[in-house]
Amino acid sequence: MTESSYRIQGATGEWEVVIGLEVHAQVTSNAKLFSGAATAFGAEPNSQVSLIDAAMPGMLPVPNRECIRQAVRTGMAIDAQINRWSRFDRKNYFYADLPQGYQISQLYHPLVGEGAIEIEPAEGVTKTIGVERIHVEQDAGKLMHDQHPTRSYVDLNRSGVALMEIVSRPDMRSPAEAGAYVKKLRSILRYVGSCDGNMDEGSMRADVNVSVRRPGEPFGTRTETKNVNSVRFVQAVVEIEAKRQVGVIEDGGTIVQETRLFDPDKFETRSMRSKEDAHDYRYFPDPDLLPLELDDAFLAECRASLPELPDAKRKRYEGELGLPAYNADVLTAEIETARWFEALLDALAKPDLARQASNWVISDLFGALNRLGKDIEDSPVTPRQGAELLGLVADGTLSGTLAKQVFEIMLETGDDPARIVEEKGLKQTSDTGAIEAAIADVMAANADKVADYRGGKDKLFGFFVGQTMKAMGGKANPGVVNELLKKALG
Questions:
Q1: What is d(CA 384, CA 344) in angstroms, rounded to the nearest whole number?
Q2: Which residues are the signal sequence here (predicted)?
């Protein structure tokens, strides 16, 4: 299904979905946005809270340079406008997990302006999604409702943690597009190193804005479903909320602009509160913080520190290395996979084998890791060992069948392939005398099939190849077997 064909089928006709996403990404840094407190995941409640995070009287915030740097690098990675002058604002609201009674954010003058992200929601389909802005802000704390039968406790470990809020334009039109956008954004953030992308730990989460309209008509009223923490759930929220809105409208109701919550157990959204507008928060410039002014040297350092990004790497793999588009896409989707493959190519030092290497990683290595329940960073086989195995196949030491046997032993023992070949006697043979003797035995035992082959049943050739390889214990060079069989069978 392409990006333009997704429609909700209502009782009165078709409806189009309009989607925008506000992604909150926790900045990878050495401390919080305005304090030196740690940000490790899973720490004991209230063990990572400075006096600033707890909003003690007289405490003044000081911006963390690394947090600003990471946000700027993220903006550069999506070709966004970097604003040399930006400012912090106070967003005023009162809640138990917000010690200051306000959140320091950026409304009027964000650090990063407009950019774009290219997605591929379906094979062969590309679409550019606009990014309206990236601003930095501090996170709130967390209420804990399951610690006491009648009380709620407050954990301020997340209070003051640096977030990038990455706000898309309402350019997405299907669950698939929303999912592809989150995946691509996560990939970019992880390549840049500005966010670890661990959605299950809450370091990346999305607020999903959804509205519906008749195709071609103006935008409808949107709802915002907060803190959705997986790609699958983002797609589910789009579908569930769009269908709910169509049902309300077709029953004669109206959509209320509101904030909603997603229940992953019941797979439904439910109302949380009416949606506030900017004026409800009484924004004003934070008097404790000077505006941020970025100089040429800082911007140059940010740009120079960027790695090769996934789109550029994918194009290089296709162009320079001649990889199929599918292989290039799979190998560049995750930074860890790309690093492992690059290390494999460096160890192999044979660019002409890049295609074979990519096929081996995607089929053999990924298959084994999936079976073992391991990630590529935990692979029992190193890139150097993988390169050595591929080299043994390339120089004729191992056949494809033998290579699979050696690979299984490598997975179990961690031994190098050359050592396994030597110890197990698995070296491929091109000894024509031994192969000719095996062929003679196979032909003698299958005289009827020899006659059939010579009578025109060419497809039997594969049978003779298989029988000869079996007789040789899989150690015969397949090229030599084919050549000698053709001569013997006439």
A1: 6
A2: none
Q: Which of 424, 446, 481 is the last residue of a domain?
A: 424
Residue from 408, 400, 439 nearest 424 by CA: 408
Number of domains the chain is built from: 3
**Beta-strand runs (E) in 30-123:** 85-86, 89-92, 102-105, 115-122
209 touches 21 (CB < 8 A): yes
Do residues 231 and 333 share a domain? no
Count Cα atoms within 13 angstroms, Cβ side, for 84: 6
Q: How many CB atoms lie within 10 A of CB 429?
A: 15
pLDDT, one tens digit per residue, over 291-312 is 999 999 999 999 999 999 999 9
Residues 418 and 437 occupy one common structural domain = no
CB atoms inside a 10 Å sphere around CB 202: 16
The residues, ordered by sequence, that sit 6+ positions from 440 with a Cβ below 8 Å of its Cβ are 488
Asked if 110 and 235 sit in the same domain, the reply is yes
3-state secondary structure of 29: coil
Same domain, 135 and 64: yes
Same domain, 142 and 213: yes
Total residues found in the chain within this entry:
490
Give, rounded to a whole angstrom, the gap between the first and last alpha carbons of the chain.
52
Contact by Cβ (8 Å): 210, 241: yes
Q: Is the pLDDT of residue 326 over 70?
A: yes
Side chain identity, residue 396: G
One domain for residues 60 and 97: yes
**Residue at 3 is within a domain:** no
Contact (CB, 8 A) for 411 and 372? yes
Continuous segment of H or E residues that includes residue 14 = strand 13-26
List the domain range (segments joined by +) for residue 147: 8-301
Lookup result for tokens 């990471």: 70
User: What is the rounded distance in angstroms from the CA atom of residue 449 to the CA atom of residue 482?
Assistant: 17
**Residue tagged 């397949």 (tokens):** 478
Q: Which residues contact 483 (CB under 8 A, 6 or more apart)?
A: none
Which of 444, 218, 183 has the alpha carbon at shortest distance from 333?
183
114 near 139, Cβ under 8 Å?
A: no
Domain final residue, candidates 375, 399, 424: 424
Return the pLDDT at 426. Answer: 76
* Count of C-beta atoms within a 10 Å radius of residue 350: 14
Give start and end residues of each alpha helix (H) in 251-353. Answer: 296-304, 310-319, 325-332, 335-348
Domain identity same for 75 and 164? yes
Residues 361 and 482 occupy one common structural domain: no
Mean pLDDT, the chain, rounded, equals 93
